[in-house]
Design brief:
Layout (H helix, E strand, L loop, with lengths): L1 H22 L4 H17 L3 H8 L1 H4 L2 H19 L3 H27 L7
């Protein structure tokens, strides 16, 4: 049942993003930034954590989950280190995801020949 819930919730988040790209003039980069910022804002007001616990990977894998992870890392680091946590917390909390994206993007660029869109 957890797999079905994660698939439906993650799919619904992706449908929202696709709808925004198809029916508005928003470019994909702006939609991505909007999802990250919405994860940060929803985390800041305390809504995203219970949602992520309920939805599981369906809420933590999309970009809004990345934004929530950034917020959670900053909040924890500020509580431990003070103002310095503003600069270190987000990187420390999301280092694995950022590293994975960079490494797998680099490997993909080695395997396939990336080209600019015309």
């Amino acid at each position: 049942m957890d797999y079905i819930k994660a698939f439906v919730i993650g799919g619904a988040i992706c449908v929202i993003g696709q709808f925004l790209m198809d029916h508005t003039k928003m470019l994909p980069g702006r939609v991505m930034v909007m999802f990250v910022v919405s994860g940060v804002l929803l985390g800041a007001i305390g809504v995203y954590e219970p949602f992520a616990k309920w939805a599981g990977s369906g809420a933590t894998v999309p970009l809004c989950g990345f934004g929530y992870r950034l917020w959670d890392g900053v909040k924890t680091a500020v509580a431990q280190k003070g103002v310095l946590g503003l600069f270190t917390g987000g990187f420390k909390a999301s280092a694995v995801g950022i590293s994975g994206a960079l490494i797998f993007g680099w490997i993909s660029a080695l395997i396939w020949n990336p080209k600019m869109k015309k």
